[in-house]
Protein 1
Amino acid sequence: MSQSRADFSTADITDHTDSFLRHREPATGFPTLNAQRTGKCILGCSLLTVDCSLPSVITFLRGKLVEAHPTHAVVDVGGVGYQVAIPLSSFGKLPAPETEVFLHTELVIREDAHLLFGFATLQERSLFRMLIEKVSGIGPKTAMAVLSGMNAGTFAQAVSAGDVKLLSAIPGVGKKTAERIVVELRDKLGDLPTGASSPVSSGTAAVDLGEARLNDAVLALGALGYKPLESHQCVRTLISDPKNAKAGVEDLVRLALKQMN
């Protein structure tokens, strides 16, 4: 049975449109949208056919971190400032502002914008690519929500176990989307890089379980209505205290609530 426009939410339409407008440009020359219109889809959108097999025109950035926010960062590379959208999982791994940072990147080109996404690890970028290229109906917005809502290791375990309930708990991911993720990625997770992380700054140690606890605690506080930046700063301070070395996510959330109230 065909679906009417009323059957789709705004988020569905946004990701649907993104899925047809994604295109990674050649490694040389100026960016162009190499696509052809091929008719209409059920939403009435003009469809584009694009070649997504070409490499990203910007594959990484190395430079000075100028600004760091839970949703984006600004990197100065040779006097040019790049604003890069980042997931919460990468925000927790960024060094202090005014120091060197290295981010793996993915350029997504739409008719109305060129969007640059940054990731602290190759695993995060590979997962982002896998979500937007392998799972029908998922665009960059939902892929970033997945990376912000769950670390890559936990995500891989949830998909392998078919844990739809855990995946659908991620903000922006409903039950149907979670089911599609499990069906379409369960046999493809072996393609993810095995390393959990890579350095994001000179001399930065590999990210340990503390970062996973930090991200999970910040997400929990966000669900309670607290701002991500305030929550991140508070939880990072708590984790850096030796007394909280063995504190779990629930303990960190309770301690943060006491400090922020």
Protein 2
Amino acid sequence: MNLFAVRKQLDRVLHPVVSTIARPPIHANVWTLIGAMLGAAGSVLFYLGLLWPAFALLIVRGLVDHIDGYKARNFGQRSTFGAVMDDVADRWVLGVMFAGGCLWLSPAYPHVLVVMALGITGALVNVIIKLSIYAEAHQDIRREHGKIGHPVDVVGMFGSAEFIIYFGAGVFFTALLRDPRPMLVGCWAVAVMAHVSLLQRMHFAWRHYRRVDPAAAAMTTERPGEGPRGDGPPPAGPRSIPTRCGSSSPAPRPSARWPDPRPDVRHGHRARALEPPVDAPPRKVSNLNPANAITASRFLTLPPFVWAVDQGYAQIATLALLICAALDMVDGLVARLLRCQTPFGEVFDAIADGFCYGFFMVVLTAYGQLPWLPVVITIAFGVYNTYLRAAYARRAGRTVNFRSWAMEKLVAYGGYNVLFGVAQIEVDFYLWGFVAIMGLTLVHDTKRMLIDPIDPPEVPA
């Protein structure tokens, strides 16, 4: 259990303050942006050791996080983009404030940099496992007042509110006693409790979904006027559908466009769910969607990386690299969860991969931390790979991202090469090995993209 389980009670306590502050004509998304700016300012204050102002911004930012939700719910400003923006801002603020505090402690306690890495990694993986459960166990998703929810929300002892308690308590007593040890304990609490929460959510997934067959639970279609087994019309009127987590959610009324599903008792879970019929018009998805916004945010890690390498801060350079890699994993999950996959998004993700990791390598080469020759060859291979993909798209006559399993793994290898360059670990061996494997992969992909038949386009859901 976490504070999410008693959120309604907390909202009632904070309602007088939140409703008063929310009166100005400021959009909910602007409030979210203000919260992100307060988090950025707080991280700088933590880094400079100005603990009382930083602690005040930590509390105020938590209050602003309530204001944007209140504004969206009560002033007709709800949107999918706003919900995604709020989630991203929450996690980003958590990371930068925690990093600022750890960096201030690092001269006295160098091991706190390891604690910082553990805390940020634990927080990010908590988000990833939550999104993964949302995507894979969508039959248990519910909406209340337009906000998406899932039983996993109340599992775990770490979240934005818990972070304020763990980290904020340490900051408060350090500022009060002028002793850095309480803040060090708060940093350890964040790192430990983030991983405890991760284990709790993994246990939740194991307990509730270990016997759920994804193929049996896959969404299927039904013809209008027939039940899930074709044995007559579905029953009329709303009713409750049991879920794997023991809760019930009201089913929508049946219609020709959205047939009414019924539980498949043979498998012990809902094996059929809502899905548009085969003859439904294809769903149009804009390229300006949350998944592509997350992909674009990877470029924001490039300036901090350059600054960290220039100043000799290997830990911060590594953190920028890890955030860039984590965003690369999150954008795909968001695209599947919100059903906003587009051909442009796939191509944009591939471009972001090549540009970001290529930029990291060029920066390290400029500062003498990577040998120039294999980096130049790698960039030349990347340009040739871009040409091959453009030629494949012209042959296909549509925007399409050629899927190469080996090249996808080489992208991760490129990230490791940047990490080896920052840490100065056998850079020549790993970089030349990367060049050799990439060359062989391009030889194989050249045949597939320029000679082999074009794969037919996927039928949109």
